[in-house]
Amino acid sequence: MTGTAxxxxxxxxxxxxxxxxxxxxxxxxxxxxxxxAGEEPARLPDAALYDGPGYPYAVHRPGAQVVGELVTPSAAxxxxxxAELDRLEEYHGPDRPLNVYDRLSRPVLRTDGTAVQAWVxxxxxxxxxxxxxxxxxxxxxxxxxxxx
Length: 148
Hints:
The protein is α+β, with helices and mostly antiparallel strands. It has 4 helices and 6 strands. It has a single domain (2-141), classed as Hypothetical upf0131 protein ytfp, CATH 3.10.490.10. The radius of gyration is 14 Å and the shape is globular. It starts with a helix and ends in an 11-residue tail after the last strand.
């Protein structure tokens, strides 16, 4: 995809979004609409999805998968989008105790099965442990199907 190649050439990875940042959801309109070079369906392997409630958390889980989109910000908007998404996801930097989510580079699968590295916001370790004990798992890993 051209947009992904452009962002990678500009020094930035695309983002895998799986909840309120997906096209049609409210945070996509606030943070991404009009600022992307490309958006395409994708899946995050080895992750499970939990209802927050109100917003989702992905956690590492071998054998599971999360449904979402691979979003490539335009080169001109990349730095601003990265900073805004870090604030939205309450990511303060690697291994910071106040993180709600950790931003990690993970392989994501396009619909044709090819893998691409992307930024993914996963639940910070203390939140992930709590979700695995008491959280509400979203069967099938698709936030848009959570009420079905």
